[in-house]
C-alpha cells in the first residue's frame, strides 16, 4: 500500500483494482444506446465520456506513480467537474454517477486541507444539477449525494492511511540505519579498547627487541616472549568479543521468527512469557534462542502449516532443578514415518546437551509436529555441564546446520 508498482504484475493488479469501479458507468453507457436523446447528442456524450474516463485515469495513475502538485491537479478536476455537469445536463439523471467519480478523484489527489472543502463542493454541485430532473428529486439525495460525499471522504481517509504507512516505513528504515550505525560504533570502541593497548605494547616491545639485537640476545628473547604473551592474550580477547557479538538473544530470535512465519503465511501464536525478555543466564538464553531459530526454520521449510504456537513454561526435572521448556508446535503435515533426524536437529540436540538440556520431538496434538527444548536454569554462580555455549578454547560456536528433515 502506498508504493508504486515495481513489476508489471503489480502495475496490472493496481490498474485492474481501479478499473473494476468503472462498472458503475454501466448506466451512462447503456443510456448512450437506449436513451431518448438525439443521435448527435448521444455521439457527443460518448466522446465526452471517453474524455472524462481518460482524464480520470490520467489523474489517478499519475498521482499513484509520480505524484502531482496541487496547481496541476485543480485544472484537471475543474475539467472533470465541468464534463460531469455538461453530460448530466444534456443526457439525463443516469449520468449523475459521474459526480461520484469526480468526488473520488478529488479525495485521492488533493491534500486533506483542500479535499475536505472540495468534496462537499462537488456534492453541492451534484445536488444543484439534480434539481433539474423532477423524476429523481425524491431519492437522488440518497442515491447520489450521500455516496458522493461518503466515497470522497473515504478516499481522504485512505490517502491519510497511505501517508502514515509511508512515514512508518521511512521511520523503520531510519531506526534500522541508526541501530546499525550504533552497532558499528560500539564494535569500533570495543576493538579499540581490546587491541589498542595490546598493539601499542607489541610495537614498543618489537622496537626495543630490535635495538637489543645483536648485542643483547637474551634480553631481546625476553621481549619476544612478552610479545608472544601479549599477542595470545589479544587473540583470546578478540575471540571472546566475537563470541559475545554472535550470541543469540531470545527477543531477537522471536522477532526473526515472527517475520519468517509471517512471510511464509503462517500465523504465529507467541506466549506472552517470550515477549517479556526475562533476564536469563547467558548459556540458557543462547540455548533457547538456538532452539527457537531451528524449530521455526523447520516449520517454515517443511511443515506446510497454517498456524505455529510458541510457548515458554517453567518446570522442574526429577532432581528438583528448575528448568525452562520452549515448545514450538505447528498444525502442518508432521514428520513422515521412518524419516531420519536431520543435521539441524542433531546439532541442536548436541548444543542443548552442552547446557545440560535435552530435545524432545514428536507429533503435535492431533496433527503437525512438536519440538520442545528443555534447559535447566542453574543456581546463581554455577555453570552447567559443558561450560557454556562454545568450545573450550573460547572460539565462537557455529550455528547448527539447517535440518534436512524433521
From TrEMBL:
Per the record, which residues fall in region Disordered?
378-406
Could you confirm whether the keyword Coiled coil appears in this record? yes
**CDD domains noted in UniProt:** HATPase_UhpB-NarQ-NarX-like
Leader sequence segment = none
Q: Where is the composition biased (Pro residues)?
A: 397-406
Highest taxon above the source species: Bacteria
> Which residues lie in coiled coils?
161-188
Stretches assigned to the Signal transduction histidine kinase subgroup 3 dimerisation and phosphoacceptor domain: 183-248
GO molecular function ontology, one term from the record: kinase activity
Q: Has keyword Transmembrane helix? A: yes
Keywords, alphabetical: Coiled coil, Kinase, Membrane, Transferase, Transmembrane, Transmembrane helix, Two-component regulatory system
The record ties this protein, via Gene3D superfamilies, to: 1.20.5.1930, Histidine kinase-like ATPase, C-terminal domain (3.30.565.10)
| Membrane spanning residue stretches | 12-30, 42-60, 72-89, 95-112, 117-133, 139-162
Which protein are we looking at? Sensor histidine kinase
